Amino acid sequence: MDRGNEFVKCQIEENIAVVTIDRPPVNALNPQALMEFQSIFDNLAREPKVLVVIITGGGKKVFVAGADIDSLRAETPETGLVTNLRFQDTFTKIANFYRPVICAVSGLAIGGGFEIAMACDIVIADTSASFSCPEVNLSLIAAGGGTQRLPRQIPVAKAKELLFTGRKMKAEEAEKVGFVNQVVPVGEVLNTAKALAKQIASRGPIAVAMTKRCINQGLDLPLKEGLQLEAVESASNFGTADFIEGVDAFFAKRAPEFKG
Question: Which residues are catalytic?
Answer without folding.
Answer: 115, 135
